[in-house]
Amino acid sequence: MKILVVGGGGREHAIIWKLKQSRNHDIYCAPGNGGISELAACVPIKPTDIEAVAAYAKRERFDLVIVAPDDPLYMGLVDKLQSAGIRAFGPTAQAARIEGSKVYAKYLMKKYGIPTAEYEVFDDFAKAAAYVKGCPMPVVVKADGLALGKGVVICETVDSALSALKEIMLDKMFGEAGNRVVIEEYLEGPEVSVLAFCDGKTILPMQSAQDHKRAYDGDKGPNTGGMGTFSPSLKYTDEVRNAAEETIIRRTVDALNAEGVLYKGVIFFGMMLTKDGPKLLEYNARFGDPEAQVVLPRLKNDLLEVVEAVLNGTLDRITLEWDDNVAVCVVMASGGYPGKYTKGVPISGLNNVREAVVFHAGTAVKDGAYVTDGGRVLGVTALGTDIQDARKKAYAGVNEIFFEGAHYRTDIGLK
Ligand SMILES: Nc1ncnc2c1ncn2[C@@H]1O[C@H](COP(=O)(O)OP(=O)(O)O)[C@@H](O)[C@H]1O
Ligand SMILES: [Mg+2]
């Protein structure tokens, strides 16, 4: 089968690696990266140039296009592909609003009784400012639209809430995404990510994962795209899972149906496990990155069969099967990330990694050798009989790899 995967990070590398584990499909990737180019033909088209992606997919007669990142989904790439008669995996623009608009997501949660933080929506700065003055602290301020994972501010004081509102609503730090804000109650508890395949009727949750958002050990430093993950989460016990599946996951599909939205693809549930039970923080309309890097290696099914079942509406005939091993992914980032960093730094030692798979997030090939090409560079992923074993193997891999300025957390999986 001739497949195009849209995206170019560690998540896309993991998706392609997983597809190739089952069969030697003919895979292309737009734009891909250095590591992906070992498994797929990389084509230099930007995922956000949805016209160009659709035209390319049509011209090259792909049997299937998998759209992995949020922007092209929200911009309507799947709609475009579908109207050109190309099978595309991922939600339509309308369905992707569960991620693209936090106001819409909260509206769904409230209307259909999905447990979430209490909140108010504002499109007027003065009213929002007056409201936060009466809120207990901390309070959470969220830009409505996509903001590269930077549109959420946890505010300890009224002053910091006011400056977050100013930056989002008046200075338009995230452009149109800040036309509206959600101001919500601060929730406490461990955070768990659950991905699920959805064909519009049936929803099949995958195994849980936990991310490490902060740059440094002990959850210190600025937020990042994710510095590492592990799966499964021990906090996601059977009891929590039953509650989450009933009150959050199933209710979401029912809510979408009631709203007349057909959702086909992956839904990511970002949950906070509070003392009052699991509450939903947000949806993503896609595989998480780096959650995919620990969940997909544990999935025993042929990924393509599951994808086909989503497209055909036959997910009720699939049972997901899981490897009992634990997976750990340690992200190696460029020096300076998530701030300024340089690209083009040579990477060595990749061939010495024995017991881990290295998913490339931001690499390129230059003169036949790998160089860094992004903030997050590699995701070193290992399976083990328990978390200690998986950590040992992943960090043994990390220790073989060198690039100037590399930084990574040493505590992935210890939470
Ligand atoms: N109500 C809340 N209470 C406590 N922490 C929150 C709350 N909402 C979000 N967060 C924290 O902020 C992070 C980012 O928020 P999220 O809603 O996932 O937006 P995004 O991923 O689009 O930036 C979450 O992963 C969580 O750690
Ligand atoms: Mg999030």
Blueprint (SSEs and pairs):
Blueprint: E1 2-7, H1 10-22, E2 26-31, E3 41-42, H2 50-59, E4 64-67, H3 70-75, H4 77-83, E5 88-89, H5 97-100, H6 102-111, E6 119-122, H7 125-133, E7 139-143, E8 152-155, H8 158-170, E9 181-185, E10 191-198, E11 203-205, E12 210-211, E13 214-216, E14 220-223, E15 228-231, H9 238-258, E16 265-274, E17 277-284, H10 292-295, H11 303-312, E18 326-333, E19 357-360, E20 363-366, E21 369-372, E22 376-384, H12 387-400
Parallel strand pairs: 1-2, 1-4, 2-3, 4-5
Antiparallel strand pairs: 6-9, 7-8, 7-9, 10-11, 10-16, 12-15, 13-14, 15-18, 16-17, 18-22, 19-22, 20-21
Helix pairs in contact: 7-8
The protein binds adenosine-5'-diphosphate and magnesium ion.
- Tally of separate helices: 12
Spatial ordering of strands, largest sheet: 3-2-1-4-5
CATH class of the largest domain: Alpha Beta
CATH architecture of the largest domain: 2-Layer Sandwich
- Share of helical residues: 25-40%
- Low-pLDDT runs: none
Bound molecule types: adenosine-5'-diphosphate, magnesium ion
The shape, in one word, is globular
Average pLDDT figure: 97
Based on CA atoms alone, the radius of gyration comes out at: 21 Å
